[in-house]
Amino acid sequence: MKRVEMTSYDAAYDGFEWKIPAQFNYGGDVVDVWAKDPDRMALIWVNEAGEERRFTYADVRDLTNQFANYLTQKGVKKGDRVLIMLPRIPEWQIAMVGCNKLGAIPIPCVTMLTGKDVSYRMEHSGAVAVVTTAMEVGKVSDDVPVRLSVGEAAGWDDFKTELNRQSTDFIPAAVNAEDPAIMFYTSGSTGLPKGVLHASRGLFSWRVSAWYWLSLTEDDVMWCTADTGWSKAGTSILYGPWSCGATVLFYDGPFDLEHRLDLLQRYNVTVYCAAATEIRQLVQVDTSARDLSSLRLSVSAGESVDPDTVRAWSDKTGALLLDGYGQTETLMTVLNYPKMKLKPGSMGKPLPGTQAAILTGQGRRAVPGEPGQLAIRYPHPQVMLGYWNNPEKTKENFLTVDGTEWFLTGDTAYMDTEGYLFFAGRDDDVINSSGYRIGPMEVENALMEHGMVQECAAVASPDKTRGEVVKAFIVLKRGCTPSDDLVKELQDFTKALTAPYKYPRRIAFLDELPKTATGKILRRLLKEQEFEGWSA
After folding, report:
1. What's the CA dihedral at 145, 517, 525, 471 to 10 degrees?
2. What is the number of other CB atoms lying within 10 angstroms of the CB of residue 132?
3. Can you say whether residue 392 is alpha, beta or left, with left for phi > 0 and alpha for psi between -120 and 50 degrees?
4. Among 123, 136, 135, 132, which Cα is nearest to 81's?
5. One domain, residues 303 and 421
6. Per the count of CB atoms within 10 A, which of 359, 392, 445, 466 is most buried?
């Protein structure tokens, strides 16, 4: 696919069309191609202690060939599922791409999973192999046929030893565009986690957001702080950056504000991707003594970044901060772009080659400003094949309107007259108060403009008169003290910034908000707490 150079956002559409190859093997068609330049750097790994390992694309080619040979020797075949539960270490990339070369289906998982979590994923997916660290082997059943550990563990094959026994030559499997290529498990906010299965066309098409949102080139150093089990790691640590020939920085260590900034400076990071929570904390650190001149772009996704934080980050670093929207089922589909006019609070416009619409509950397209469910026109190469072994649930995500098929994201949004999209919340996050539908982000963005608010979450709270009212859970900035006067101040402040009916009638102060491992605020837990034991 030829990249369309963009002088402005709208120019990205000039001549753009999806050209998905009939066959695509990410390992062979991306990594091995970049490996023809023996000096091109693919990966720089560093840990908390300062240990560092560097890998060229040629190194990655050889190691992933050895990994694919190991799996083949153990009887793993194309289409088999392989659970990869590794921290931020280079063996993660090696295992992921090694599976891609063989045509096996990697299932990336965070190491925070419990033994019960692992057992569920193994049984649900029918995985025949597991790759993890020696510290985590106790979470895995002994009856798994293929077990490979990073570090020695009794009864397990040792990663380094086994790869060293294998040839560095391997012919990548023929993988069709519609063949399954990777599976992510959702966080399981309702019911058991679902396996989101993506095709090889997905691995190919994720480069487009790297082109236009991340604007990556061969000269960039990209650092994304997402954990290895989340789809964001796929697009912004592995498949996106390496499709562009960029170098990836991979840090294994705890979150520390000062150290984050040190790493940005030390490795001359040019593109930085982090959760909104992380950015909000970083803007409070003095950066005047650091040289961050290499940083030209920062991006965030998963939880909207409030306009005040966007301004503060750009003032401190000189780099743009661009918000974006995606989900495990579609990856990044609505984004802000470096050469696009930005609108505060907007998650941007659709990715080139993507048509988005807002659909109402009556199955019609909403007028500008009217909230409804965000939908992506189908077919679309980034949309999942489906939920693993759950065709009924998969079918629920698709709707045909006037002969056009749409993938339903499950998120509520609205579109303005210029085509900018604004996130309002998950369908089950929307607050219905006296007939008014209130998106939590509208309330949260207003509160985040207040100088004393560090983080916040707005949820529905039951009310006998109004059905539901808005309740805000607020984390104050360091040195700020909760009080009744502050509650009144925050309520009046919100009324001044958004429609008065949206203000939080109830406010609670917390030391921290509940979050997923990726930093997304768990409004669901706060809402459940409000409705527990409620009786109208």
Report:
1. -160
2. 29
3. alpha
4. 123
5. no
6. 445
What is the C-alpha separation between 286 and 263, in angstroms, rounded? Answer: 15
Find all residues with CB under 8 Å of 286, minimum gap 6, and list them: none
Q: Which of 344, 339, 292 is nearest to 319 (CA)?
A: 292
CA dist 27 and 490 (Å) reads: 53
> Considering 396, 425, 454, which residue would you say is the last residue of a domain?
425
Q: In sequence order, which residues have a C-beta less than 8 Å from that of residue 392 and are 6 or more positions away?
A: none
Are 234 and 334 part of one and the same domain? yes
* Pairing of β 421-426 and β 404-415: antiparallel
Residue 88 φ/ψ region, left for φ over 0, alpha for ψ in the -120 to 50 degree band, beta for the rest:
beta
pLDDT in tens, the chain (536 residues): 556 565 666 766 667 889 999 999 999 999 999 999 999 999 999 999 999 999 999 999 999 999 999 999 999 999 999 999 999 999 999 999 999 999 999 999 989 888 888 999 999 999 999 999 999 999 999 999 999 999 999 999 999 999 999 999 999 999 999 999 999 998 543 457 899 999 999 999 999 999 999 999 999 999 999 999 989 999 999 999 999 999 999 999 998 999 999 999 999 999 999 988 889 889 989 998 999 999 999 999 877 788 888 999 999 999 999 999 999 999 999 999 998 999 888 999 999 999 999 998 777 899 999 999 999 999 999 999 999 999 999 999 999 998 999 999 988 999 999 999 998 877 778 787 876 768 888 899 889 999 999 999 999 999 887 888 999 999 999 999 999 999 999 999 998 887 778 899 999 999 999 988 667 788 889 999 999 877 65
Distances (CA, A) of 242 to 26, 61, 89, 184, 437: 10, 12, 16, 20, 42
CA–CA distance, 278 with 239 (Å, rounded to integer): 23
Enclosing domain of residue 510: 430-531
> Which of 184, 199, 214 is at the close of a domain?
199
Give 355's Cβ-side CA count (13 Å radius). Answer: 10
CA dist., res. 117 & res. 441, Å (int): 31
Cα distance between residue 323 and residue 305, in whole Å: 7
pTM of the model: 0.85
| Residue 493 resides in a domain | yes
At 458 the three-state DSSP class reads strand
The DSSP symbol for 13 reads G
Distance between CA atoms of 438 and 432, rounded to whole angstroms? 6
3 state DSSP class of 215: coil
The alpha-helical segments, DSSP class H, found in 224-346 are 231-233, 239-243, 257-266, 276-282, 307-317
Residue 226's DSSP bridge partners are: none
